[in-house]
């Protein structure tokens, strides 16, 4: 049960890291890009993740940011994941060094795997971003989310 809880927590944290809300202005980047970058105009020395997350109370994960990609570290399982911005290429120096390499997709929605991920997403005002649940929807206890089905 402890391992399942930790995996669920990590998935919830990963969802928040991938879909942290943000905006852009003509004057410059003031938040993380939610869509894909133009691959012909990417500036690999620019920080495309000005809005960063870090653990406040959890001791089982960490994220390091590197301009066009980030590395998520699951301390409980001792695994790392390379997440790179859509429209960029993962750095060759990092490819193959992690347990997984994933492109950060445009923020079209969130897929959840466990019902206990719902309250965290609702508190982050991301309820409408939930597009699918893997598993039986009868276990969804959130009345607001049940009405959206």
Account of the 3D structure:
- The protein has 149 residues and is an alpha/beta fold.
- The protein folds into two domains: 106 residues, no CATH class; 41 residues, no CATH class.
- It contains three helices and eight strands.
- Strands 3-4-5-6 form a four-stranded mixed sheet, with helices on one face. A two-stranded antiparallel ribbon has the order 1-2. A two-stranded parallel ribbon has the order 7-8.
- A hairpin with a 4-residue loop joins strand 4 and strand 5.
- The chain is globular.
- About 7% of the residues have low confidence.
Q: Gist?
A:
The strands form 3 sheets. This protein has a 4-stranded mixed sheet, covered by helices on one side. Strands 1-2 form a two-stranded antiparallel sheet. A two-stranded parallel ribbon has the order 7-8. The chain is an alpha/beta fold and 149 residues long. The chain is built from 3 helices and 8 strands.
State the main characteristics:
149 residues, 2 domains, four-stranded mixed beta sheet, two-stranded antiparallel sheet
Q: Give helix % range.
A: 10-25%
Number of domains: 2
Strand content: 15-25%
Mean pLDDT: 77
Q: Count every helix, treating DSSP H or I runs of 4 or more residues as helices.
A: 3
Order of helices and strands: HEEEEEEEHEH
- Secondary-structure content class: alpha/beta
Radius of gyration: 16 Å
Could you say which overall geometry the principal axes of the C-alpha atoms support?
A: globular
Tell me about the largest β-sheet: 4 strands, mixed
The largest beta-sheet arranges its strands as 3-4-5-6
What gap, in angstroms, lies between the N and C termini? 29 Å
Number of strands: 8
- Uncertain stretches of 5 or more adjacent residues: 18-28
């Amino acid at each position: 049960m402890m391992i399942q809880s930790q995996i669920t927590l990590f998935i919830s944290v990963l969802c928040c890291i991938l879909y942290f809300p943000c905006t852009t202005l003509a004057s410059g980047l003031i938040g993380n890009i939610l869509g894909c970058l133009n691959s012909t105009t990417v500036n690999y020395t620019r920080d495309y993740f000005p809005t960063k997350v870090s653990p406040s109370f959890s001791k089982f994960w960490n994220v390091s940011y590197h301009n066009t990609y980030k590395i998520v570290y699951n301390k409980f399982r001792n695994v790392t994941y390379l997440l790179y911005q859509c429209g960029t290429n993962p750095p060759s120096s990092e490819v193959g060094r992690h347990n997984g390499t994933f492109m950060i997709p445009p923020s079209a929605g969130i897929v959840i795997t466990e019902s206990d991920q719902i309250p965290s997403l609702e508190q982050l005002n991301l309820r409408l971003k939930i597009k699918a649940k893997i598993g039986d929807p009868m276990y969804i206890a959130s009345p607001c989310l049940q009405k959206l089905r």
